[in-house]
Design goal:
The complex is a heterodimer. Chain A is mainly alpha-helical. Chain A is about 75% helix and about 0% strand. By secondary structure, chain B is α/β, with parallel strands linked by helices. Among the domains of chain B are: about 100 residues; about 130 residues, no CATH class. In chain B, helix 2 runs antiparallel to helix 4 and helix 2 crosses helix 5. Chain B is elongated and about 150 Å long. The chains are: A mainly alpha, B alpha/beta. The interface between A and B is medium-sized, with 45 and 25 residues.
Chain lengths: ~325, ~350
């Protein structure tokens, strides 16, 4: 009787075609893999989903896949691949009438420009995404694009050393809007405030803010956030002359970047680590690191030169996977 | 309570009317009980729970692949199972099989047990073979003769041992003849070199007595060596031809290697046994291998059905309320740059 009564509670499942269900699963798994900083797996899953969507002419699915692949490429600092994916996504959005995705594509284009230190170009792209401001208060926040756009604009302000405090306040006010609260966005604000505090010479306050940001990133298991915060903590320690602390933070950051397979960041931090080792009097270690760094930079330069060669058959760079 | 005086006569149970709802509930309960009882009956029948059984025995050299519960078949049909194993004197395993009563008549006095260990790794196929239909039915408790195959592991070891013996004999003879060939070729090269460097004209080099004598010696010894090498090559070729059937499950070994004659009878016996077993093994394995593509398709179909079943199960309340409906085309959430 129990079995019969339970069976009566069954409703017919919504029948989703097998292919669409597969593609949807690939996308979900890819999003999870990206959140875990497993880029290779994320790229493989998104590529599979893209081929399925293209095979059934699901334009929106293909567009979402292209956007996700662009995210993966940007996290790997493969700007050429990211540009190609974004171009294809833009073309699909235009032809399929999915204009509401253009804002997301523009955000990623701006992110690519910021990461390549093309701040003026990034500022131009972000201009169309930012909300209107009344002083340092946004008039209205709509969608999920505007707050990251404000955050990226704040980063540009710090890089150009122009109105960084104003943009930090604008970002903080944007986070106060209802429905915007997200731990990662809040952690980013803490880091901005920490940089402001460090610029004003308040290193202890900066360190406290960064520790709070690190705790938030660890709760969310955001490896890029953890790594970036450790680097900033190392830099604060260097500015204060706390070389042991700086050494520990930078080594921890290198371990996280190595896990994420981000050799560019590892090289960047190694340069700082060499300075720290010299300050600590570890001459032998700093020389070994310098030699290793020089060798890795040479290898990286060779790889970049070879990846500049386009395949004449596809018109794509050789390191860009075909969908 | 009914206050009508006419209705109050007699026991109240005779005045109760069952309405429609009560009848439905009763029918529902009765149907459920009936279904449960049928389930029990069919289950007991399929598991042979209350069925009489006849016990037979057989002895094997190894219990590999045999364990209590292993199914016993007759012409592909399940007729019983292994019930017990025990080690007896004489380094044998005494195995008891229980045959269901309905199949007892199939087991005649000429019945034998075939234990096939080549069908899979770790499990054996146990079949009872009985051909004569007019022979008397075998009594309960009888011991059956048995034919057992070795396992795949034993087969591979046998073939490896054969190759170990064969290789050393052929190769050692080649090791003797090759240096002689090399010397002959060196002599011929030297003579050709003398002619090429112009020691006399070509005709003088050919008709020079010393050269002629040297040539004759070389040619003679070379001819002898080549004859010997040819004989050996024919032996080796024959050996290769005979090795071929062993690999392809056919043929027997050579009989003209005098040095190996001491080991030959032993090798011959082993080769014959190995070939026979290999033939059996390949025949049986081929039959199983042909099933693999079908098994793969069946497995894929089963997985798809299991997936649909899981999806349906997830829609059963209260499971469905705990499971979040995933987005159709999920996007990585928009986020600021972390650098």
């Amino acid at each position: 009787m129990l079995c019969l009564s339970i069976a009566s509670c069954v409703s017919y499942p919504p029948v989703q075609p097998g292919l669409l269900a597969d593609a949807s699963l690939y996308m979900q798994d890819g999003v999870k893999a990206f959140a875990e900083a497993d880029r290779l797996r994320a790229q493989a899953l998104f590529t599979r989903a893209l081929s399925i969507y293209q095979g059934i002419d699901d334009q929106e699915g293909a567009l979402n896949s292209q956007i996700n692949l662009a995210e993966v490429a940007l996290s790997a600092r493969n700007y050429h691949a990211a540009r190609l994916y974004l171009q294809r996504a833009r073309a699909v959005a235009e032809t399929a009438g999915l204009q509401h995705y253009q804002a997301r594509i523009a955000l990623l284009s701006a992110q690519s420009a910021v990461q390549q230190k093309q701040y003026i170009q990034a500022e131009k792209i972000l201009q169309s995404l930012l909300p209107a401001f009344d002083g340092d208060m946004p008039v209205k926040i709509s969608g999920d694009i505007q707050v990251p756009a404000i955050a990226n604009r704040t980063l540009i302000a710090f890089a150009l050393k122009h109105k960084a405090a104003l943009w930090t306040r604008r970002y903080a006010n944007a986070l106060k809007f209802p429905g915007i609260a997200a731990p990662l966005l809040a952690a980013r604000l803490l880091r901005f405030n920490a940089v402001l505090a460090a610029e004003q010479g308040r290193f202890e306050a900066a360190e406290v803010l960064l520790q709070q940001a690190l705790a938030k990133y660890k709760v969310q298991l955001s490896r890029p956030g953890i790594a970036a915060t450790l680097v900033e903590l190392g830099q604060i320690a260097m500015q204060q002359g706390h070389w042991r602390e700086a050494q520990a933070y930078l080594q921890r950051a290198i371990l996280v970047f190595r896990f994420m397979d981000d050799p560019g960041s590892v090289l960047f931090i190694t340069e700082s680590l060499i300075k720290v080792e010299k300050a600590l009097g570890n001459t032998a270690r700093s020389e070994i690191l310098s030699q290793w760094l020089a060798q890795k930079k040479l290898e990286q330069a060779k790889r970049m030169l070879s990846s500049q060669n386009f395949s004449p058959e596809t018109g794509l760079a050789k390191d860009v996977p075909l969908p | 309570m009914n206050s009508d005086p006419d209705q109050n006569a007699g026991h109240y149970i005779h005045r109760i009317n069952y309405n429609r709802r009560e009848r439905m509930v009763g029918f529902f309960v009765f149907s459920a009980l009936l279904l449960f009882a049928m389930l029990l009956v069919f289950g007991a029948k399929s598991q042979h729970l209350f069925e009489q059984r006849a016990v037979f025995y057989f002895d094997v050299q190894s219990s590999e692949g045999i364990s209590p519960g292993v199914v016993v078949r007759f012409l592909g049909t399940e007729v019983g199972q292994i019930s017990d194993l025990s080690i007896v004197h004489g380094r044998k395993i005494h195995v008891a099989i229980e045959v269901y009563a309905q199949y007892h008549d199939l087991i005649r006095s000429d019945a034998k047990v075939i234990v096939n260990r080549l069908v899979g790794i770790g499990s054996a196929l146990i079949e009872i073979e009985s051909v004569a239909i007019d022979a008397p039915v075998l009594q309960d408790g009888a011991t059956l003769p048995v034919e057992e195959t070795p396992s795949l592991n034993d087969l591979v070891l046998g073939i490896a041992r054969f190759f170990q013996y064969a290789d050393t004999d052929v190769l050692s003879r080649f090791e003797v003849i090759l240096p002689k060939l090399e010397r002959t070729l060196e002599d011929a090269q030297r003579i050709i070199g003398q002619i090429a460097t112009g020691h006399g004209t070509l005709g003088a080099a050919v008709f020079d007595l010393k050269v002629e004598q040297e040539l004759k010696t070389v040619v003679l010894s070379g001819a002898n060596i080549l004859t010997e090498a040819q004989a050996l090559l024919s032996v080796a070729e024959q050996r290769l031809v005979e090795l071929g059937p062993v690999i392809n499950s056919a043929g027997v070994a050579v009989n003209d290697v005098k040095d190996a004659s001491q080991k030959l009878p032993e090798i011959m016996a082993e080769i014959k046994q190995t070939i026979a077993l290999t033939n059996t093994a390949l025949r049986l394995i081929n039959k199983e291998l042909r099933q693999i593509p079908g098994i793969g398709l069946d497995a894929r179909r089963a997985l798809n059905r299991a997936d649909r079943l899981l999806q349906s199960t997830q829609n059963i309340w209260p499971l469905s309320s705990g499971i979040e409906k995933p987005a159709a085309r999920p996007l990585i959430p928009a986020h600021p740059i972390h650098d």
